[in-house]
Amino acid sequence: MKLKINLLLITLLASFTVFSQNTYVFLGSYNQDKTAESILVYQLDTLNGKLTKVTSARNLINPSFLTVSPNGKYVYACTESKTPNAGSVSCFEFNPKNKSLIFLNKQSSGGENPVYLSVHKSGKWLVNANYTEGSVSVHPLLEDGRIDSIAQNFQYMDGSVNKKRQTRSHVHSAVFSPQFDYLFLPDLGADKIRCYQFDETQKKPLVEAKVPFTKTDLESGPRHFTFHPNQKFGYCIEEMSGTISVYQYENGTLNKIQRVNTHPDNITEGFESSDIHISPDGKFLYAANRGKENNIAIFSIAENGTLTNIGYQSTLGKHPRIFSIDETGKFLIAINVNSGNVIVFKRNPKTGLLKKTGKKVKMKNVSCVQIKKIYQ
Asked: Residues 299-338: pLDDT tens digits?
């Protein structure tokens, strides 16, 4: 009997070990030095939150945003971001067995300052948002993961009321709907969330939607967007006003049902809200605040999709531009650009609150983090 129990324990421990070996963390940076490491890959120990370096990539400038293909084989990066008269999207092949991250190719991003990438669930399309002049580009992806030349590019000229920041369009993200049949483009410069139908069977998949955009509040500056796991609600974080707008979602249409602050009531200016994500169980929403706050705002989500603030967690650094939650919902990892540190938090599934775990990782001008469980 003892032998059977011991064997069972060994089997369980082995399964936990394999699981922890399959979760990887990808970090990008604002890095003008081509000789330095610009993308770092770490292994996340899903038992204790420890990060162990696996590999890195050099010889590229400013990988400001990263995304990983559905199969985990390819890493796509916005490159040459914040570089005048430049902008590209690059592809890397990630091999966890060989601990390698190999550059495959790059293409023009179709606009200056690419800031966000999304891969279609089929793994056949890459969509890129360009901030400076306000545009979106669609690239076919080849079978070997490489990026093909642009299939579609749309540029926008309209702005909004803030004369300093909204003289023209600034598309800040490109987010697929839960069924991947629509694409949403929060436009900070125009105070709009633009929308297209996405027909993956066509050579030019972006098709005009019945409702081409949803207006947001003036001077709100919509930035990032996420959908609830139940697919009924959408949430947009608004950078300039420090707010989140909650929408009821159905077939490409957004209807606003709530708007809440991401910051405490005693903070009345200097808003720089940045990123937004929902826990996999759909019970909690997290929103990053930069500027004076440097924290993660935590909200509970009611059955009707509305939000209630339940607290704030310092990111233990300066300027948390992006954060990511692992697929199990156990960990949240935040990056702080100005202080150059990466902090792993353990998430309480019952309360939604966060607690620092493991050791922080240093990376100069760290710009982005993505977490991906990869099956080997």
From this structure: 999 999 999 999 999 999 999 999 999 999 999 999 999 9
Q: Which of 274, 247, 251, 276 is nearest to 259 (CA)?
A: 247
What is each CA distance from 153 to 67, 120, 136, 205, 311, in whole angstroms?
Answer: 20, 17, 6, 11, 41
Cβ neighbours for 47, distance < 8 A, ≥ 6 positions apart: 16, 20
DSSP 161: S
SS3 of 218-234: CCCCEEEEEECCCCCEE
Per-residue pLDDT at 366: 97
What letter does residue 109 receive in the DSSP assignment?
-
Q: Sheet of 243-250: strands edge to edge? A: 222-227, 233-238, 243-250, 253-261
Q: Residue 22: name the closest of 5, 39, 42, 40 by CA.
A: 42
Query: Which residues pair with residue 165 across a beta bridge?
Result: none
Nearest to 340 by CA among 318, 364, 323: 364
Residue 10's φ and ψ, nearest 5 degrees, are -60, -45
What is the pLDDT, as a whole number, of residue 117?
A: 98
Are the C-beta atoms of residues 330 and 46 closer than 8 Å to each other?
yes
Distances (CA, A) of 232 to 111, 229, 236, 314: 33, 8, 14, 30
> Is 123:70 a contact under the CB 8 Å cutoff?
yes
For the chain, where are the alpha helices, taking DSSP H only?
Answer: 2-21
Q: What is the 3-state secondary structure (H, E, C) of 253-275?
A: EEEEEEEEECCCCCCCCCCCEEE
Rounded to the nearest angstrom, the gap between the alpha carbon of residue 170 and the centroid of all alpha carbons in its chain is 17
Report the DSSP beta bridge partners of residue 56: 40
- Would you give the end-to-end CA distance of the chain in angstroms? 33
Q: Which residues of the chain have pLDDT under 70?
A: 1-21
